[in-house]
Amino acid sequence: MLKSNYMPTRFYHILIFILCFFTQSLTAQQTGKAPEKVKGKVVRIIDGDTFELLVKKETYKIRLSAIDAPEKGQDYYQQSRQALADLVFGKIVTVELLNKDRYQRWVGDVYNSNNAYINGWLIADGNAWHYVKYSKSAPLAASEANARRQKLGLWAQAKPIAPWLYRKESRETSNDKGKTGKKKVSKGKTA
């Protein structure tokens, strides 16, 4: 019988969720106040890291903290979006609202009715990257490393491209269209 060097995936998930809970508790203690919590029904999935939450009669656009999922047009976009939908669409979730981003979306930590940390779950299953630019969470980093080792989700691809690099490349490509804003046309061809 082969002996595995890796802990079973379920155990890893449980360990990560416990560590994330304590990380969030420490964050609240350091800032001096606990984040505001809202509870509502997920009514729309926008992409793999953003959804709309209906709370009473108010809709909140929620961007999951600490993760970054593939962009529209990027490999694994549909699978990542579907993974988030499978976990939360049409369900009641609790969101700890941390802050608003530059697009006026609420950035938050999302928990299902069993108090499972959805942000961490998406990383652990290989459906999103740990967004290290905005999160220094060691448990989430370990979760991503485990998903990479096991080639889960997007990590089964030969060379997955991080969404922040994909966005940067897309911006640079759109800037390379020329100073006039028109596509560059090679010699001898008409636009």
Task: Identify the notable features of this structure and list them briefly.
191 residues; alpha+beta; OB fold (Dihydrolipoamide Acetyltransferase, E2P); two-stranded antiparallel ribbon; 5 helices
Describe this structure in words.
The chain has 191 residues and is α+β, with helices and mostly antiparallel strands. The chain has a single domain, classed as OB fold (Dihydrolipoamide Acetyltransferase, E2P) (Beta Barrel). The chain is 36% helix and 23% strand. The strands form 2 sheets. The protein has a 5-stranded mixed barrel with strand order 1-2-3-6-5. Strand 5 and strand 6 form a beta hairpin.
Question: TL;DR?
Answer:
It contains five helices and seven strands.
Please trace the helix and strand order, writing H or E for each element: HEEEEHEEHEHH
CATH topology: OB fold (Dihydrolipoamide Acetyltransferase, E2P)
Number of domains: 1
Total helical elements: 5
The CATH class is identified as Mainly Beta
Strand neighbour order, sheet with most strands = 1-2-3-6-5
Mean pLDDT level: 85
Number of strands: 7
Rounded to an integer in angstroms, the radius of gyration calculated over CA atoms is: 19 Å
* Strand composition percent: 15-25%
Q: Describe the largest sheet.
A: 5 strands, mixed, barrel
Uncertain ranges: 25-30, 183-191
Structural class: alpha+beta
